[in-house]
Amino acid sequence: MLERVAGRRCSSPSAFTTAVAGGQPPDHQGGGEDRRLPPRRRGGQVSELPVGAERAIAAPANLVYRLIVDFERHHPRFLPPAFSQFRVERGGVRAGTVHSFRLTVGRRARDIRMRVEEPEPGRVFTESDERSSMATTWVVFPQGAGSRVRVETRWQGAGGVGGFFERLFPPRVLRRLYVDELRLDG
What we know:
Number of domains: 1
Number of strands: 9
Oligomer: single chain
CATH superfamily: START domain
CATH topology: Alpha-D-Glucose-1,6-Bisphosphate, Chain A, domain 4
Number of helices: 3
CATH class: Alpha Beta
Helix content: 10-25%
CATH architecture: 2-Layer Sandwich
Strand content: 35-45%
């Protein structure tokens, strides 16, 4: 059965992973890191920048999903220190939740306000920044007795010199943060 996740047709979780990795299966041993060159500005258009990570978790997919979408009690416990001032503004669990936090990377900090939706409840949820084009998709699927979790963020990159640096540095830093977050051991 073909499914549509993040705008791509996928026949299985591994097909989804391959699709978001740009047609290259990720290195599952190394945390799913995508080693392709960053996207470029093409034909005067600003390109979409993707960054993601994935990890096998030794717990059932339904439990892992429930913990990740509980922004009130569980999700904040496994956020890396770069995510601070986490606050639930509305809801708290699953779709309809609105939460905010400060993301600090190096000397730069940015306040982010996310709205949670569940295009596939129990399997896929998204967080969309209300102040920018940034959107994060989480996919949790069964794998043997455990599960595999994939997180991917996309946003519209800037053009010019600023866009060049945006394609180089933020994806690397965010990927490291996501690998840390996916430890889910808070």
